[in-house]
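Ticket reopened. Same input as before:
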Amino acid sequence: MGLKGKKVLIADDEPDILEIIQYNLEREGYETSTAKDGDEALAKAKSEKPDLIILDIMMPKKNGIEVCQILRSQPAFKDVLIIFLTALSDETSHIKGLETGADDYVSKPISPKVLLSRVSALFRRANKGPGDRVIQLETLTIDPDRYEVLANTNNVTLAKKEFELLYLLASKPGRVFLRNEILNQVWGNDVIVGGRTIDVHIRKLRQKLGMDCITTIKGVGYKFDL
Amino acid sequence: MGLKGKKVLIADDEPDILEIIQYNLEREGYETSTAKDGDEALAKAKSEKPDLIILDIMMPKKNGIEVCQILRSQPAFKDVLIIFLTALSDETSHIKGLETGADDYVSKPISPKVLLSRVSALFRRANKGPGDRVIQLETLTIDPDRYEVLANTNNVTLAKKEFELLYLLASKPGRVFLRNEILNQVWGNDVIVGGRTIDVHIRKLRQKLGMDCITTIKGVGYKFDL
DNA sequence: TTTCATTTTACGGGTTTTTTAAGGCTATTT
DNA sequence: AAATAGCCTTAAAAAACCCGTAAAATGAAA
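Engineering reply: fixed in the latest deploy. New output:
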């Protein structure tokens, strides 16, 4: 599960639109998937757990507003980012949309540049990158764009999983991450790995970082603290 | 030389339109040249290196979209500003146009005011004069206008893909490019090439440049660093 | 068409990363 | 004190990934 690979689900009934958006998002390094109606959107939202859902308002089966309402009513999707697409003149939808809990709103016809900037603005606001994703904590700097870690003025080279693990923990200093949470975030929901895998990675991190910043909470999980 | 000193190439098969646009742009201080079909547009783009190209979609020889695609496929024109002109109702073209990599889109009948504001907005956004495309990093110079690379005082000749790959990486030194990003940017996301293709090009680059400036990050991608 | 350069594929080999496994340690409970 | 649970440590197996080379395919020029 990559760092940049924010997953975006795009739902629209017009294949052309779908394609343009997908093309442009993938160019920027996002992972994408698509749905062509409301029901499919709901299903894929559940199965793929995207970070952002771009919803056309006018769709067969269920329209975007309905989809949004259903999602928002479930705790698991309370924080998913949602952008509505809609016809220019459709002012009412705009209002309804934001009322329903959308995070932003882009009107058709779509300009890819506009959409992209909204998307990245949204991620930035939600503190999920790309862009301002550097974590800086006292003597430790973690830069996922450069894939570099600076600990006490010396550059530390981390392998992929190590890096992602550190990034996760450091993203919310002081907060405890359950083992399960870590597995889901770093390894992905569907990947099954043995129970000791996390330990080993934690150990390597502590070793490589050379500073005591990861605390074990027995029977619960780990937390990052400086 | 006008106060703005920006060169604009206008391509349209209707002399009237050509004249109106040219007149208005020159009033604002732009240098202009014109073409009346796709082939002429391509030729003049190459010979005159304009900063902005205004392309009518419907043209003899080659239509605007074709011209745009051809230009965009060449590194030298990857960043030229392009505005499409088209008939109002032509929604499909709009989509196709932006997909093809146009920067903006103005529909006929043209209002000079609208066009001028779009043009200046575009330049404001782009905010870069000619010559800005050269990348200069310590002992390495990459010039996409001349298609040349200077590494440690010796001229290195790169093939097209090699050059584009290097240019991409060097455009953001230190930043990691995922394999997917590289594929999308250099190859285009509709082209399907095997996974090892990037490796080979990276290898050739390292070989030809004779300097150790490309770093592999296993499982993630590559980055350029000096 | 032929020729030549570029681009892509194929694949063995080697390296790094990731995972598993097993024994040891420590704190907590009985 | 013994038993237990949970994590640490280490080592080694397994998997993933990339390099280098060479050959095949593609495309451009003569």
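The helical segments of chain B are 15-27, 38-48, 64-72, 91-100, 112-126, 160-171, 179-187, 197-209. Residues 7-126 of chain B form a domain with the Rossmann fold fold (CATH 3.40.50.2300). Please confirm and we'll close it.
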